[in-house]
Automatic annotation (TrEMBL):
This is Transcriptional regulator. PROSITE patterns: TAT (PS51318). The keyword Magnesium does not apply. It comes from the Bacteria. The keyword Transmembrane helix does not apply. Residues 1-28 form the signal peptide. Gene3D superfamilies: Tetratricopeptide repeat domain (1.25.40.10). InterPro entries: TAT_signal, TPR-like_helical_dom_sf. Keywords: Signal.
Length: 332
């Protein structure tokens, strides 16, 4: 006989199933907030890490709305779900990192007031989570805004607060990040001695291995430190040392993986060559930066290349003219 023609559950068994369903739905109705567990933290952390890495490839313009949506999702999960205290702390920690990313993307897009608001949100969320490392990293990014657009001395004070807050709990990469930001701020102040001390501490820290680095530390390595050291030397008026660091970094920098960062550092290397009186070398580096720039959307990169165009416009060698043709005045 074809048993597929018969019902499998009937009678008392069927009634029991219906009763169980009725009880379950009544229970759900009495508790409108869904419950999430620790596995959600792992999934959400992975999403956020992937989003952060997209900035390396696309730039901030394409990602600001996406990062803001991620922050809204995390905020909603905090307020509209039930969870353990441990899961809640994890959600606050992720919200802090999402707000930090929103701050960075806003800064890179030229929205400086919004960037500061996001950074302050990140600090509050990290304090609630008890995650001092996320908070310290947020202060490192706030320092970039301060030494670039505000008062470098405020940036130094902020980094020193971050360093004190994570003493005894910091990983090698977080130590390197904070020393590097300290060095950049000090270079803006013209403090060559303290800048060199901070850079040496950053290079020392990055050589120490650790199996438990936060995912947001992925970008810091010796190559990046050489690029930051080059920027410091440029600010301190030592163009020759800047070229040395930028050349060392370029030999190992993965431009295809990090085109957004490449635009900035190639442009700074070009500035160093221009300071040494070599406009052709500067223009050649600018041409490489333009090729990277074609794939990203970053107001900061736009401004950087426009400023270099203005400085190179007074030189009329063939290589310089080729670069000037790539970046017409209307886009500068």
């Amino acid at each position: 006989m074809d048993r597929r023609g018969f019902l499998i559950t009937t009678g008392a068994s069927l009634a029991g199933t219906a009763l169980a369903w009725s009880s379950a739905t009544a229970s759900a109705a009495s508790n409108p907030y869904p419950r999430i567990g620790s596995e959600a933290i792992t999934s959400l952390s992975t999403r956020l890490a992937h989003l952060s890495r997209l900035d390396d490839v696309w730039g901030s313009g394409k990602l600001r709305d996406l990062a803001a949506a991620e922050l809204r999702l995390l905020t909603g999960l905090i307020t509209d779900t039930t969870h353990t205290t441990e899961v809640e702390q994890g959600l606050y920690g992720l919200a802090a990192e999402a707000a930090r990313l929103c701050g960075w993307l806003s800064y890179d897009s030229g929205h400086h007031a919004a960037a500061q608001r996001y950074y302050l949100t990140a600090l509050r969320a990290s304090a609630t989570a008890g995650d001092t490392l996320v908070g310290a990293n947020t202060m490192a990014f706030m320092a970039i805004q301060l030494y670039s657009r505000g008062n470098p001395q405020d940036a130094v004070a902020l980094v020193e607060t971050a360093q004190r807050s994570i003493r005894g709990r910091a990983t090698p990469k977080t130590i390197a990040i904070l020393h590097a930001r300290q060095a950049r701020a000090l270079s803006k102040l013209g403090d060559q001695s303290r800048c060199a001390t901070a850079l040496n501490a950053a290079f020392d820290a990055i050589t120490k291995g650790c199996d438990h680095e936060p995912s947001w530390c992925y970008w810091i390595n010796t190559t990046e430190l050489h690029m930051l050291a080059g920027s410091c030397a440029l600010d301190l008026g030592d163009a020759r040392r800047a070229v040395h660091h930028f050349t060392t970094a370029k030999d190992s920098f993965d431009i295809a993986t990090y085109p957004a960062g490449a635009v900035i550092y190639l442009a700074r290397a070009a500035e160093a060559h221009l300071a040494l009186g070599d406009p052709d070398a500067a223009a050649d580096l600018c041409l490489q930066a333009v090729r990277c720039h074609d794939s990203i959307d970053s107001a900061r990169a736009d401004r950087t290349l426009a400023a270099l165009r203005a400085r190179l416009a007074r030189h009329r060698t063939p290589v310089v003219r080729e670069f000037l043709d790539q970046i017409p005045p209307s886009s500068a």
